[in-house]
Amino acid sequence: MFKSTLAKGTIILTAAGFLSRILGFFYRIWLSDHLGSELLGIYQMIFPISGVCYTIYASGIQTAISKITAERKASISVFFHGLTLSLFLSLLLSLLLYEGAPFLATHFLFDERTIQPLRILSFMFPFGAVTACCNGYNYGKSNSRGPAVSQLTEQVIRIACAYFIVFTFQGLNFSCELAVLVLVIGEATSALVSILSLISKECKGKKISAKSLHKSGLADITLLALPLTFHRLIINLLHSFEATLVPYTLQQSGMTKTMALSEYGILNGMAFPFIFFPTALTGSLSVLLLPVVSKANKEENTGYLHKVIRMSLTFSGGLGFACTAFFLLSGNFLGNAVFHELKAGTYICILAWLCPFMYLSSTLGSILNGLGKVYQTFTISVLSLVIKIGCLMLLVPTHGMAAYFFTLLVSQGFTTVAEALTLHKATKSLSSD
């Protein structure tokens, strides 16, 4: 079961993730050349807003669909009910963001240049809702091919559109607005591929009856998605506050606004993508772990559960330490060779120490959620972000970037250790039962 379901699905998602990230790297290099570090920083600033909105209209609902489908072997009704709720929320948020973009840009992001990118971003939400619900249903059915195809489709279309715009309209400056527009086009194409693939698979050889659409109601999804969404919303709001604090506190340390945005662009647009690259493996594993752990826990299959936990943590920890060694040895070369930016290489070497904590934390969090320890993971995440925000406000204005790197290490280390202790306690109680 482990080999046929979890391992196979992880390999498929990982292969798609790696290919997608390789393509994304070439696109990011191209984007940094066309935008420059300051505009790249502005482009990165809109993503906290996107993350908060995604949490509300999709994140909890996707997990609820996946969990209900895996545990109850639910029909496609769970997908349609989840999609109805997700689309309603996404359309509402699209309208609110479009109208509220000037307020958010002025009072939250502190840069009016983000108004138009935010308005363009608002058109992406309904498409994101479709993709998320399709992926949730596929994960619950242990089908990783659908999400893998949609992920690749989005990346390919995004890159193709960007190149098409630049080479078709010679002399046109590739702006933040155009960069966000190609995001919307990529998500729209991904949503179309996802929904057509899912309906085609479900309708193959059978009919979707009206009776089957009422087996798993909207109330089931709402009751499960509501606490998940609330928890993740609090975390994402704190993440967003943290993200806006970084350039602000850097300015307080003596940097100009342009310098602070450039630092932010180099950090998030150049250095972090390298550190996050191996999460194609841990991310795929985490996504598939939740329904597998949830099902094994419900069936009280303790032996299998311990095996899954042991193997996944060994893999994540080993990958983290290997990546730390790799980035320490090659970070300066990668930053200089790929982005032609000395600071990017330096930042990669510093951030390398985060790898074991980040990769283990991703897997630990997924296992704990699968065991039903949602409140515990929520509490740990909130405490970690409070520590990070506190350190940002207290240390960065006086010590600059060095204090920010220290903040990252302390908060991520706290998260990983707290999750590991919580999992140890949970597995101990399972063994005694």
Task: Give an overview of the whole structure.
This protein has 433 residues and is an all-alpha fold. The protein has one domain. The protein has 15 helices and no strands. α11 (302-339) runs antiparallel to α12 (342-351). The model has no long low-confidence stretch (mean pLDDT 82).
Topology:
Elements: H1 2-45, H2 47-72, H3 77-107, H4 115-121, H5 125-140, H6 145-168, H7 176-203, H8 218-252, H9 257-276, H10 279-298, H11 302-339, H12 342-351, H13 355-370, H14 374-399, H15 401-432
Helix pairs in contact: 1-6, 1-9, 1-10, 1-11, 2-3, 2-5, 2-8, 2-10, 3-4, 3-5, 4-7, 5-6, 5-7, 6-7, 8-9, 8-14, 9-12, 10-11, 10-13, 11-12, 11-13, 13-15, 14-15
Short description:
By secondary structure, this protein is mainly alpha-helical.
Q: Identify low-pLDDT runs.
A: none
Question: Number of helical runs?
Answer: 15
- What kind of sheet is the major sheet? none
Shape: globular
Please give the domain count: 1
Helix content: over 70%
Distance between the termini: 23 Å
Strand percentage lies at under 5%
Radius of gyration: 21 Å
Mean pLDDT figure: 82
Reading the helices and strands in chain order gives HHHHHHHHHHHHHHH
- Tell me how many strands there are: 0
Structure classification: mainly alpha
